[in-house]
Amino acid sequence: MRITALLYHDVIENEHFSESGFNGSGPDSYKLDLPDFKSHLQVAAPRLSGQAEALKDFLNRGVIDTQVLRLITFDDGGVSFLSRIAPLLEGYQAAGIFFIATKYLGTDGFLEASEVRELHERGHIIGSHSHSHPKIISNLSYQELLQEWKTSKDILSDIVGEEVLTASVPGGFYSKQVARAAEESGFKILFTSEPTNKVAKLGDCYIVGRYSIKQNDIPAKAAKIINHNPVFFAREFLYWNLKKLLKNSLGSNYLKLREKLLR
After folding, report:
1. In this model, does residue 263 exceed pLDDT 70?
2. I need a surface site. Which of 30, 94, 100, 238 has the fewest CB within 10 A?
């Protein structure tokens, strides 16, 4: 089985970046204006219908009827998940996977618990994006990681009325220890930000990569991802590994460098 997953964040209007999700030059660089997101969906959404339902079958029964699964995911938990993104997906008979940083529920720009429940009731998948969204989650101790994952999982499971089985790594700072803690916390699938459609496994948890979409990315990028363009995949793989090398060598200084470059 291979899983090709698109990674988006918030969808805004008229460049009002502060209205949904986290604020700052880093988070803002991942927010798409509404017309741009609509253009992305025009090329990607026709391949997404029924795919989230197939993932649910895999989570619940451990079986899947297709060798390649195409998914669309959203990180953080901003209010645009319900106000803009979900209705547009539903117009294509598609569902999203929405990852929530639970510490921010009900705060300015983020979903209320009742809105997360509504997304679930409308057929979308709810997952954990950790509890506090640490800047570099891979720097936490193992016990701190367990606390992040278990707290978020318990909160979300209580909200939706069933066990939440999916999670995504905040900031793209994946490590085996992050994955082990997620697996011990009971997650069956952990999404990273590594651009790959190969599925790995650690214990009872599947590790799934995703292809990030940023503010200035054109719809053709989403089309190449969802249609499995081999040249694009190779280029993304090289770019990600260079970025991962910088993250590992610079540590917290990587975030400072990114902030300066985005100003």
Report:
1. no
2. 238
- Residue range 71-94: mean pLDDT, rounded: 98
Mean pLDDT of 158-185: 97
Instruction: Give mean pLDDT, residues 142-149.
Output: 98
CA dihedral of residues 71, 259, 84, 165 (deg, nearest 10):
40
| pTM reported for the whole predicted model | 0.90
Locate 64 and state its tokens. Answer: 């899947």
Give dist(CA 101, CA 244) in Å, integer: 23
Question: What SS3 state is found at 159?
Answer: helix
Residue 255, pLDDT score: 57
Q: Quick check: 208 and 51 in contact, CB under 8 A?
A: no
Task: Determine phi and psi for 2, rounding to 5 degrees.
Answer: -125, 145
For residue 206, count other CB atoms closer than 10 A to its CB.
21
CA 154, 156, 161, 164 dihedral sign is negative
DSSP bridge partners of 70: 4
| Average pLDDT, rounded, for the chain | 92
All residues at 6 or more sequence positions from 119 whose CB lies less than 8 Å from its CB, including other chains: 81, 82, 86, 98, 111, 126
User: Would you call 76 exposed, middle or buried from its count of C-beta atoms within 10 A (0-12, 13-18, 19+)?
Assistant: buried
- β-strand partners of 177: none
Res 162 pLDDT > 90: yes
